[in-house]
Amino acid sequence: MNKYNATKVIVTEDGTLFTEWIVKKHELDVTGKRFDSVAEGEYYQFLLQQRKYGEIKDFECHPKFVLQEKPKITYIADFMVTELDGSRRVVDIKGVETSTFRVKLKLFQAKYPTLPIDILIKKRGEFIPLAQYKKEKAARKRATNALKKRADEGRKQNANQIHRNQK
Fold first, then answer.
1. How confident is the model over 131-156, as pLDDT tens digits?
2. Alpha carbon of 18 to those of 8, 46, 91, 94: distances in Å?
3. Which of 43, 51, 90, 119 could form a disulfide with 130 if both were Cys (CB 3.0 to 4.6 A apart)?
4. Which spans in 34-129 are helix H?
5. Alpha-carbon distance 25 to 138, whole Å?
6. Rounded to an integer, what distance in angstroms lies between the CA atom of residue 149 and that of residue 128?
7. 124 Cα distance to chain centroid
């Protein structure tokens, strides 16, 4: 577990995912890429499939970007994907969006304005953009608040009706 309670995983070259604690517990000899969360490991599996079926040209794990020299600030993304046309994009899988990440994202976008970055979150078994998830979450919150407001108004009307009938 890391500081965000994510389970660290190891993914072999054939795409098999192992949780790190099981590998250590059973003293297994597993070689592969290490990831900080299951979601990252599963996205790696997804990229392996895309490369195998010719949907992407290639990808790189944990590319490092220098955002500032003094003091030195670096950003290590989860993946750098090279598309079939040669264009590249950065992919970052998030479980928790921290304030540190938001600052590094702004620095990244300022230094590398032509390099697109996809920030994805895994919800309901699929990877969706974080912005889309935030919009959906806000819409659910607004709908919940509207229902609560209507319920409160209904209770007030019922209370007023009861009060009038008692007079």
1. 888 898 899 999 999 888 888 877 77
2. 9, 15, 22, 20
3. 119
4. 38-52, 99-111
5. 41
6. 31
7. 12
